Amino acid sequence: MILFIGFTFLFSTAIQAQGCSDAGVCTVHSFKPNGLDSISELTNQFKVGISYGAADNNISVFGSYLEYGRQFSDKFGIDARLTSLAQSGNDISTFGLSDIFLNSNYRISKKATLTLGFKIPLSDANKMEDRRALPMDYQSSLGTFDLLLGFGYFINKLHLVAAYQQPLTQNNNSFFAEDYPLGSPLRNFQSTNQYKRSGDILLRASYPIDLGQKFRLTPSLLPIYHLANDKYTDKDGTELEIDGSQGLTLNGNLYLDYYLDEKQALQFNVGSPFIVREVRPDGLTRSFVASLEYRIRF
After folding, report:
1. How far is it, in rounded angstroms, from Cα 34 to Cα 88?
2. Neighbours of 262 (CB within 10 A)
3. Which helix (H) or strand (E) holds 175?
4. Fewest Cβ atoms nearer than 10 Å: which of 20, 103, 143, 229?
5. Above pLDDT 90, what percent of the chain?
6. How far apart are alpha carbons 131 and 241 in whole angstroms?
7. Is the dihedral of CA 272, 277, 278, 281 positive or negative?
8. Are 286 and 13 in contact (CB under 8 A)?
9. Shortest CA distance to 203 belongs to which of 188, 185, 223, 176?
10. pLDDT given for residue 35 in this prediction
11. Stretch 111-134: mean pLDDT, rounded?
């Protein structure tokens, strides 16, 4: 059964998915599988990770991050993450710092935790090419300042998470598809001038399976509901809804942890979608995402 799940994720690359790792809420430490389980007498944790994703329109996406977390007591801790993103495709290559995530975690009990955080953009999401704005698919950040709220709960080994991510500001993207000449692949992208992105609600269920003392396999199911249609402003100054951008994305993830010793571990994560929104103008579309993370506690 485990092998079947793994092969399903690995070979379902023909489907398109929301690239949750870019939006951010599903990669917050306490929202990931076994977030509470990682709390120990060791007060500091450092992570470094890289990822690869296959996006729409023949675009490849490479991500990286650095993360530091500190546990001040058995109930309260904070973590901070710095992310970057590079995109390549259609003879266009971009790179930039993405966001800073700042989160505080309060442990209500041995089974439950609350999280409050913010996503701080390091880009206004309006990179240019030949003096023309690029679509969101080539931006290193959504360019929004976001509120993050979450609740995690353990039922024995089953980890359940409910989270909310809401933009408090919007970006400065000014992309019009019609600004590009006929024959350009960018004519097929969704215009996002004065783009207004709606919030997301996330649910996650994960269950760890220990494979001896060194390995742990964790299947995870991740539904994300985009709360309303996104909007943009056309050349005439009229604000329009982007029909089909509201709705459900259902992702599956498989995590494999390898424990080097009591303080160090490697984690491989692969994800792919089962259900997608009809339209995804935010540039987060991924058919396949894989990541590798190293973490150490001290």
Report:
1. 33
2. 9
3. none
4. 229
5. 80
6. 26
7. negative
8. no
9. 223
10. 52
11. 96
Task: Name the pLDDT band for 22 (thresholds 50, 70, 90).
Answer: very low
pLDDT recorded at residue 56: 84
Task: Round to whole Å and give the CA distance between 295 and 209.
Answer: 20
* Structure-block tokens of residue 185: 């692949």
Q: What is the dihedral of CA 78, 153, 21, 208, to 10 degrees?
A: 110
SS3 of 162, please? strand
DSSP readout, 219-270? EEEEEEEE-S--EEE-TTS-EEE-TT-SEEEEEEEEEEEEESSSSEEEEEEE
Evaluated on CA atoms 290, 31, 56, 65, the torsion sign reads negative
* Token output for 135: 């679509």
State CA 279 to chain mean position distance.
17
DSSP annotation of 293 reads: E
Tokens of 212: 């001896």
211 pLDDT more than 90: yes
* Burial tier of 65 (Cβ tally within 10 Å: 0-12, 13-18, 19+): buried
Q: What is the DSSP string of 23-81?
A: H-GGGSGGGSTTTTTT--S--EEEEEEEEEEE-STT-EEEEEEEEEEEE-SSSEEEEEE
- CA angle (10 as vertex; 93, 30 as ends), nearest 5: 80
Six-digit token pair at 68? Answer: 């530091």
- pTM: predicted TM-score of the whole model, two decimal places: 0.89
DSSP codes, 88-114: EETTEEEEEEEEEEEEEEEE-SSSEEE
Tens-digit pLDDT profile for residues 27-57: 777 777 765 455 456 799 999 999 999 988 8
Encoded tokens for 121: 């953009």
Question: Tokens in use for 196?
Answer: 């207004």
